[in-house]
Specification:
The structure holds 2 protein chains of 2 kinds. By secondary structure, chain A is mainly α. Chain A has 11 helices and no strands. Chain A folds into 2 domains: about 90 residues, Orthogonal Bundle (Rna Polymerase Sigma Factor, Chain: A), CATH 1.10.1740; about 80 residues, Winged helix-like DNA-binding domain superfamily/Winged helix DNA-binding domain (Arc Repressor Mutant, subunit A, Orthogonal Bundle). In chain A, about 35% of the residues are buried. Chain B is of the alpha/beta class. Helix content of chain B is about 50%, strand content about 15%. Chain B contains 10 helices and 6 strands. Chain B has a 5-stranded mixed β-barrel with strand order 1-2-3-6-5. In chain B, strand 2 and strand 3 form a beta hairpin. The chains are: A mainly alpha, B alpha/beta. At the A-B interface, helix 3, helix 4 and helix 11 of A face helix 1 and helix 2 of B.
Chain lengths: ~190, ~240
């Protein structure tokens, strides 16, 4: 059976999971739906280059497929697949399987983080050196970088971040607060006045 | 940039990768919950033993020993079982954290839930004499167990400090004295001329008692107070 993309358009992620469990071809729709988002996420949290990130992403999709029966339909599929992506990426990150580092941030991403975390105006952001800011964000500990990315780039709410990182929502709030403080401190240290 | 979707899909087909069956995850989930329950049961056992050991000790005798309550308290704590309780509560925490929704709870919540469950079931076990039976088994079967715990017997077998326990072997009313065999089967002549017999206690042959007083020499003891032996377990079973 060949699934045409239009078969998937009006279906929710969760409906596609149900269909995939009956008909493998539907998994292609799920992969296509998430590949770009997840690839960006991998590159941002791990600073992996494109090739490494793609290898990680392949592993993510295969792992997700093998564990599809473990998906709980009370949850959102997007959070579940982000969780797997997080785990696989961290596992590579720890094993240092990520060979080279690459800058994967777009100016727009940084604007989002800076505006949301530091409450500064768009016009002020324009005057900042993106290169310097990027170095600072990249330098942040993974736990802080991750919550900033999920909240302000992936636009996830606290509950979703809690489901992805497997931490209580209270801890997520604390991490975000600390991440903002650390980012402000580091920017000030580098002489970037806000 | 690779066409990831096509590549992944091709790999899944070529390697004939299939989703793991549902029962695998159901079993995995049950297994984690089972380990949690086992940890709570073992934690309850440890809690019941702590309760048993604390309840069998006399906490007012620090006054007679000339020690502070805190010192007596820290000497008498059943550290071995406290350690086991913490260990099993820790294992329960770890397993709960790995259940499907475990991560949503804070460390302190899970820790307190596990501790409360262990305390509740442990109290139940204690009042059903389970801890007493376990203690007897441990004393008999586990080498060095008696050396690792501070028992009622240890607390009362300190004649040099004025504490003694044993069984009345002979009553000599005319001499105001009794013959006592202590917990180490050593015989003592007890002077009871200035003794207060606590409660409704009457000197009787075969009665198990605890004495507070003063050691005169290696076989003579001046008793100032006699209490009934209310401690359970090993000593009672010995008779």
């Amino acid at each position: 059976m060949i699934i045409i993309e239009k078969d998937c358009i009006n279906k929710t992620d969760e409906q596609l999971v149900s269909l995939t469990l009956k008909e493998q071809e539907y998994y292609l729709c799920l992969i296509k739906r998430f590949e770009n988002n997840l690839l960006n996420y991998i590159m941002k949290i791990s600073s992996a280059n494109l090739q490494d990130a793609e290898d990680i992403l392949q592993e993510v999709f295969i792992k997700a497929y093998q564990n599809l029966n473990d998906f709980d339909f009370n949850y959102k599929f997007s959070n579940w697949i982000f969780r797997i992506t997080h785990n696989v990426t961290i596992s590579h990150y720890r094993k240092k399987n990520i060979s080279s580092r690459a800058i994967s941030w777009e100016e727009n991403d940084m604007d989002n983080i800076l505006q949301a975390t530091l409450n500064i105006e768009q016009k002020n952001i324009q005057n900042l050196s993106y290169e310097n800011i990027l170095k600072i964000i990249e330098r942040l500990p993974l736990k802080y970088k991750e919550v900033l990315i999920l909240k302000f780039i992936e636009d996830k709410d606290y509950k979703a971040i809690s489901d992805i990182l497997h931490k209580p929502t209270g801890t997520i709030a604390t991490l975000l607060n600390r991440a903002k403080k650390m980012l402000t401190r580091e920017l000030n240290k580098e002489g970037i006045e806000l | 940039m690779k066409n990831i979707s096509e590549e992944v899909f091709k790999k899944i087909k070529e390697k004939n990768i299939k989703p793991r069956p549902n029962w695998y995850f159901v079993m995995k989930n049950y297994f984690i919950w089972m380990l949690f329950v086992i940890s709570i049961i073992l934690g309850s056992l440890a809690f019941s033993m702590i309760l048993f050991m604390i309840k069998q000790l006399d906490w007012d005798i620090y006054r007679y020993l000339g020690e502070s309550f805190l010192k007596t308290f820290f000497i008498s704590l059943p550290y071995l079982w406290v350690l086991f309780l913490l260990l099993f509560v820790g294992v329960a925490y770890y397993n709960f954290l790995h259940t499907k929704r475990g991560y949503r709870f804070r460390f302190i919540s899970i820790f307190l839930i596990s501790l409360t469950l262990s305390a509740l079931f442990g109290t139940g076990l204690y009042y059903n004499d389970f801890s007493e039976n376990i203690e007897n088994v441990f004393f008999e079967k586990i080498p060095y167990y008696s050396k690792m715990v501070y028992t009622c017997e240890k607390q009362w077998m300190q004649p040099r400090k004025g504490l003694l326990a044993g069984i009345i072997k002979e009553i000599e009313l005319s001499k105001n004295s009794i013959k006592l065999m202590d917990l180490n089967d050593q015989h003592w002549q007890i002077d009871t001329s200035k003794t207060i017999w606590r409660g409704k206690l009457q000197p009787l042959n075969g009665l198990q008692i605890k004495l507070i007083g003063k050691m005169v020499d290696n076989t003579h003891f001046q008793a100032l107070e006699v209490r009934p032996w209310q401690g359970k377990g090993k000593f009672i079973n010995k008779e």
